[in-house]
């Protein structure tokens, strides 16, 4: 065993440590329960290197914990290559006959090279366990064919980068037992890189897909299917497919969608369109709407829209999805949606490159086609929303309880919260009127309003009254809703700005409309310096 584990073992077995451990109530737990606790820790505390061993630290606490962990093969089935060859060998030994997951998240070049060396050490072993997962998305220079064929015979999940596919076409080596297949692009500079995977790289992929009867999840990044087997072959079966993540040129993505026998059964769809013709968007939206109806008993309960660089994205989650996934998807400002770790936990992610003036209208036509009646939370990040468009699009979402607004473009949404929904028949902004009855108030059940990165001191240009500052717009909105008991119980402001040179009357006016009970903002980021 490694030097670190021996030193930890010695420290954990000094007389004082043993005496304290024997008095600890946790030692009364049966091994089965202790191993279950360790497995939960293992699933959330991933080792990242010698300086951070993650869940492995629990094996250094005391001798009983160490013994329980070492005698539980199930804890040693996920081999992280970036920990080094000694750790990898230890995992192989401790896992015994159980199938392994072989993975690395190494991103830096030196880490990737280290992972390759570890793989080379493992390949030289005389005996190999079965692999149920192989996740090597960022290793450069790795050859799939070096792995023992017998070890891959029961493979369930496979993640490979385009670099592997360009080096060798491994399709004939991949078993038909796969349930999860991810082919991703390494270091893609934009939604439509200059060198997608061409048909000669993909020769054999279509044949493989037609035999993957158990495949439930598929990711294809930047694959060009023009003049490939896909264009002339019979439809790709994939009867078990429920989760699909496609990104690339619009025609290539749609060509693949057309080849599926049951696109209406895909309950989780991530679709990123770059380099597309405008007329293709209507067809793409039809697939999005099909996916939204794949689980009629599980409607979407949270939705959002964001803009990253030149890409606009709509996302939606059902109640069964982990909480906070849309927030997590939108939080990575320097990452395109299809590259986010949160993408597999989001039920819908539809992105288009905003390269023509009509994309906003096209994106909101998606919302018009979706069922908004069960949506409880809405997220908006760095998009411009005109009040009339906001009211027309989201007026049917009467069950909204939580609203997140990020970025200066959200001023129109703040204004819309205090306007009458019945005044949107005209496209003229000046025709909008303040809300006067609860039935005409948007989001009547709104409980939580979270606002971030908005300057309240600037004029609301393009709003209902361009002479008002954003702060005055919000005061007017809250005052109108207060008369109808529509003011949210919690209002959070973060990274927002109010002019500290406001006159005392303005400060009192602000405080009257935003009472202390609603001031849930973070004092470290709220830059209002008035009394």
For this entry, give a set of tags.
disordered C terminus, alpha/beta, about 525 residues, about 15% strand
Describe the protein's architecture and organization.
This protein has a domain at 1-76. Helices cover 31% and strands 16% of the residues. It is built from 18 helices and 15 strands. The chain has helices at 3-12, 15-22, 31-44, 63-70, 85-95, 109-123, 162-167, 199-202, 205-210, 229-232, 250-259, 280-292, 325-331, 359-369, 387-394, 411-416, 470-482, 504-513; strands spanning 78-80, 100-103, 131-136, 157-161, 180-184, 217-221, 243-249, 268-274, 300-308, 311-318, 348-353, 377-381, 402-406, 448-452, 490-494. Strands 1-2-3-4-5-6-7-8-11-10-9-12-13-14-15 form a 15-stranded mixed beta sheet, with helices on both faces. Helix 6 links the parallel strand 2 and strand 3 (131-136). The protein is globular.
User: Going across the major beta sheet, what is the strand order?
Assistant: 1-2-3-4-5-6-7-8-11-10-9-12-13-14-15
Number of helices, counting only DSSP H or I runs of 4 residues or more: 18
- The gyration radius over C-alpha positions equals 27 Å
Q: Structural class of the secondary structure composition? A: alpha/beta
Strand content bin: 15-25%
What characteristic shape results from the CA principal axes? globular
- Averaging pLDDT over every residue, what do you get? 78
| Poorly predicted segments | 189-193, 520-531
- How can the largest sheet be summarized? 15 strands, mixed
Question: What percent of the residues sit in helical stretches (DSSP H or I)?
Answer: 25-40%
Number of β-strand runs: 15
**Distance between the amino and carboxyl termini:** 63 Å
């Amino acid at each position: 065993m490694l030097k670190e584990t021996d030193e930890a073992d010695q420290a954990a077995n000094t007389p004082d440590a043993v005496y304290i451990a024997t008095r600890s109530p946790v030692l009364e737990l049966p091994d089965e329960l202790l191993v279950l606790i360790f497995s939960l820790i293992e699933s959330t505390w991933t080792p990242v290197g010698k300086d951070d061993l993650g869940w492995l630290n629990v094996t250094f606490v005391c001798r009983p914990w160490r013994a329980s962990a070492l005698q539980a093969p199930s804890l040693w089935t996920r081999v992280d290559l970036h920990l080094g060859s000694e750790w990898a060998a230890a995992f192989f030994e401790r896992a015994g006959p159980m199938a392994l997951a072989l993975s690395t998240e190494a991103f830096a070049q030196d880490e990737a090279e280290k992972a390759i060396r570890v793989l080379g050490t493992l390949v030289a072993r005389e005996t190999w366990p079965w692999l149920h997962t192989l996740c090597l998305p960022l290793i450069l220079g790795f050859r799939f064919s070096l792995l023992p064929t017998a070890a891959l015979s029961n493979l369930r999940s496979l993640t490979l980068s385009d670099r592997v596919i360009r080096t060798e076409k491994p399709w004939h080596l991949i078993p038909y037992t796969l349930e999860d297949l991810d082919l991703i692009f390494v270091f893609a500079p934009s939604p439509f890189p200059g060198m997608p995977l061409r048909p000669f790289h993909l020769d054999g992929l279509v044949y493989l897909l037609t035999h993957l009867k158990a495949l439930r999840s598929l990711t294809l990044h930047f694959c060009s299917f023009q003049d490939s087997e896909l264009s002339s072959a019979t439809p790709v079966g994939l009867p078990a497919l429920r989760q699909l993540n496609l990104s690339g040129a619009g025609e290539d993505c749609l060509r693949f969608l057309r080849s599926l026998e049951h696109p209406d059964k895909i309950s989780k769809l991530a679709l990123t369109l770059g380099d597309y013709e405008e007329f293709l968007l209507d067809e793409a939206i039809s697939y999005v709407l099909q996916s939204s109806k794949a689980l009629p008993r599980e409607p979407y309960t949270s939705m959002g829209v964001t803009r990253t660089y030149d890409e606009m994205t709509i996302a939606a989650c059902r109640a069964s999805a982990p909480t906070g996934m849309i927030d997590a998807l939108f939080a990575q400002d320097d990452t395109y949606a299809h590259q986010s770790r949160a993408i597999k936990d989001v039920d819908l992610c539809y992105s288009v490159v905003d390269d023509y003036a009509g994309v906003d209208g096209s994106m909101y036509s998606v919302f018009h086609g979706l069922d908004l009646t069960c949506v409880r939370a809405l997220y908006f990040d760095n998009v411009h929303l005109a009040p009339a468009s906001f009211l027309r699009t989201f007026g049917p979402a009467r069950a909204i309880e939580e609203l997140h607004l990020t970025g200066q473009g959200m001023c129109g949404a703040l204004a819309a919260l205090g306007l009458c929904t019945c005044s949107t028949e005209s496209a003229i902004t000046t025709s909008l009127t303040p809300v006067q009855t609860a039935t005409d108030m948007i989001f009547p059940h709104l409980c939580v309003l979270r606002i971030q990165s908005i300057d309240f001191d600037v004029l609301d240009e393009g709003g209902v009254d361009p002479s008002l500052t954003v702060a005055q717009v919000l005061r007017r909105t809250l005052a109108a809703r207060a008369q109808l008991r529509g003011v949210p119980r919690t209002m959070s402001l973060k990274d927002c700005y109010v002019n500290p040179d406001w006159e005392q009357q303005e400060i009192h006016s602000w405080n009257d409309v935003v009472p202390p009970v609603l001031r849930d903002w973070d004092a470290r980021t709220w830059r209002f310096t008035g009394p």
